[in-house]
Amino acid sequence: MSRATGADPSTVTADAAKATVTGRFSQAAEVAGAVLFLAGAGAANTVGTDPRVDGGFVPTR
Q1: Are the CB atoms for 41 and 34 separated by under 8 Å?
Q2: pLDDT tens string 39-53
Q3: What DSSP state is assigned to residue 25?
Q4: Are the CB atoms for 60 and 52 separated by under 8 Å?
């Protein structure tokens, strides 16, 4: 139990994951794939963007 909220941390984590579009948190390999793309030549013309690899956790317009 969390002293701050009184909630079970595993319940909070599960509820947060369910709130994403994909219903789960991103995996390390998914984030790494985005990082590798952005660091590579294929992203040479990718400018002024805020790419998110969060399964839809942060709402966008």
Answers
A1: no
A2: 999 999 999 888 888
A3: P
A4: yes
